[in-house]
Amino acid sequence: MGLFDFLKPNKEEQKESLDKGLEKTKESFFSKLGKAVIGKSKVDEEVLDELEEILLTSDVGVATTLKIIERIEKRVAEDKYLNASELDSILRDEISKLLSENRSQDIKNFDVPDTTKPYVIMVVGVNGVGKTTTIGKLAAQFHKAGKKVVLGAADTFRAAAVDQLKLWGQRVGIPVIDHGMNTDPASVAFDAVKQGNEQKADIIIVDTAGRLHTKVNLMQELTKIKRVMQKVVPDAPHEVLLVLDGSTGQNAFIQAQEFTKATDVTALAITKLDGTAKGGVVIGISDQFKIPVKYIGVGEKIDDLQLFDKVAFVNSLFKK
């Protein structure tokens, strides 16, 4: 039994964690929204200008902000006497619709398709976004769900990353394949997939370098890692998970752009939402990249890495 096996959070606890994690975003957002509509009886051009600024300063991003404003303008045109007090419910409605348009499906459990075994996840992202911690928490969640997990410490350019992953492995009670620091990342990835396959693991999670000297180096390294993994499991990786730090706001957009150019990112994890008022970044990134946001980090605890539920996220963001 791993260290975290006894932790079985209920839905109410998870909802509380989400509410607490989005507190700073919510406070900032609603205090600005309240000021924008004070003394206003209807949604006019001035209110919409204020709203545009609020969305931008909440790091929703320019393109997504303009899309939301355009939709609200359309509603205002259809209903000339739209009450300013209704603005938050209209906004909630439009953001919900926007997130629903993303091709992603809300996942209900920490699970992977039964049809693919081992299911190989390659995790990418720059240093400092909480990548290794996210892998540890994800491994713990999968382990708790009864899955056999193997980790590969292929971020070999940073000693802390290898040591940190090994520590997570010990804490959770799952094997970590490592060759130490300054070794060939692709070789580690190969061994992790090979040993995971031999051990009949359900899931193999491979960490990768957060930063190489140039984008070309990064692209080449990730391509090489994919290629060697495919020698063992021909269709690996089944998922490329990009970890982004939500507290960096627009920087997270730039990172998403760079990594989606470097490799075929299929899922996103957005971390550190609890320490920031920039939670709007989740809305913008989900809308702009059309890559499913699969996980969000709303705190330090193991269970604060949550499955991204669009409805729960919007409900929490607009909860007063």
UniProtKB/TrEMBL annotation:
It catalyses: GTP + H2O = GDP + phosphate + H(+). Residues 1-20 are annotated as: Disordered. It is a peripheral membrane protein. Residues 8-20 have a biased composition (Basic and acidic residues). One of its GO terms (molecular function) is GTP binding. Pfam families: SRP54, SRP54_N. It is found in: Cell membrane; Cytoplasm. GTP binds at residues 125-132, 207-211, 271-274. It comes from the Bacteria. CDD domains: FtsY (cd17874). Its main location: membrane. Residues 292-305 form the SRP54-type proteins GTP-binding domain. It is an enzyme of class 3 (hydrolase). GO terms for biological process: SRP-dependent cotranslational protein targeting to membrane. Its EC number is 3.6.5.4. GO terms for cellular component: cytoplasm; plasma membrane. Keywords: Cell membrane, Cytoplasm, GTP-binding, Hydrolase, Membrane, Nucleotide-binding, Receptor. InterPro entries: AAA+_ATPase, P-loop_NTPase, Signal_recog_particl_SRP54_hlx, SR_rcpt_FtsY, SRP/SRP_N, SRP54_GTPase_dom, SRP54_N_sf. Involved in targeting and insertion of nascent membrane proteins into the cytoplasmic membrane. Acts as a receptor for the complex formed by the signal recognition particle (SRP) and the ribosome-nascent chain (RNC). Belongs to the GTP-binding SRP family. FtsY subfamily. Part of the signal recognition particle protein translocation system, which is composed of SRP and FtsY. NCBIfam families: ftsY. This is Signal recognition particle receptor FtsY. It comes from Xanthocytophaga flava.
